[in-house]
Amino acid sequence: MIHDASLDDLRHKVWDGGRIDAAEALRLYRLPLEELGALADRRRQRAKARAYAGRGNDIVTYIVDRNVNYTNVCNVYCKFCAFYRTERDPEAYVISHAEMDRKIEETIAQGGTQLLLQGGHHPQLTKQWYLDLLHHMKTKFPQVNIHGFSPSEFIHFREVFGEPLETIIADFAAAGLGSIPGGGGEILVDRVRQRISPRKATSDEWLAVMDVAHRLGLFSSATMMFGHVETVADRVEHLERLRVQQDQSLGYARAAEATAQPGQPPPGHFTAFIGWTFQPENTKLRAPAVGAQEYLRTQALARIYLDNFENVQSSWVTQGPEIGQIALKFGANDLGSIMIEENVVSQAGASFRMSVADMHRLIRDLGYEPRQRDNWYRLLN
Known about the structure:
Helix content is 45%, strand content 13%. It has a single domain (21-372), classed as Aldolase class I (TIM Barrel). The chain has 16 helices and 10 strands. β3, α6 (127-140) and β4 (145-148) form a beta-alpha-beta unit. The protein is α/β, with parallel strands linked by helices and 381 residues long. The strands form 3 sheets. A 4-stranded parallel β-sheet has the order 5-6-7-8. Strands 9-1-10 form a 3-stranded parallel β-sheet, covered by helices on one side. Strands 2-3-4 form a 3-stranded parallel β-sheet, with helices on one face.
């Protein structure tokens, strides 16, 4: 076997924290799984070294929240989605304030601090309906963060409301929106998006929402749903677009520090990357299920490539608790949410559940200290 000195150089580059390019990422992806995982774990250690008063590498975080879908009516008809219904479907619904109150009260009773609020692209709901809902939630439950509305929803709002993104996002934030989830990212390659969700926001539109939100002071997560029609090169292109946007958003923050204005919130950025695998059950998109090794390999590569992201979240919801635990050695530093409620991926076949006690056990079994966090990765206990 011929020794590849250039691959050794690449290993050292990753170990030392150097930024890699797309071609180097594809080379890394072909490494033995254990070696790729070790490199990702090294990058995790570098990313978290200064967190939590220098204890970032001793701690694995999680959040207690609930996914609430305010409506299942959607006119986008993504091929990978088993959750949506048409307006005329007998199972179609729009949540009431009373039902929302009940869900939030249950969440608080279980120690929850956040509601992940997403829905379908309902063609009839007005801007005032959303503002009233946000104001009601924030007024009645001010201690609960509303982590709501994916970029594709905001693109839908722009079309329905006939207003600029800046106005819509600012008005939603004033009504109570606290942060934005990264849903709808799928793969940020338009050739792929045209095959799986042709009526949904384009890659540029998805990123534009995040750019506006960050400039307005909102933080967001970044996601990737993989294992369907995309290639590994497409996944790398997705990571590249996230990294470029994060560089830009962090640049806003540095510029704002130099010209800080009283009362003006500092710009936001991506708090974390979350990748999960496509779940094919009950969907119109036919693709073989992605196994644990490919999931771990892709997450490890994401940790290495996204050198400007401090946090990577494990996806136990689609892979199961055991693989979610192993992912903590493949670049992840966070185990995500206990998912008091989740409706979308469960409709597509994912059925895993975990309690806080389960999370503590999985984290401690690897020698880490479990700590509950909020959306901004601040420790709560």
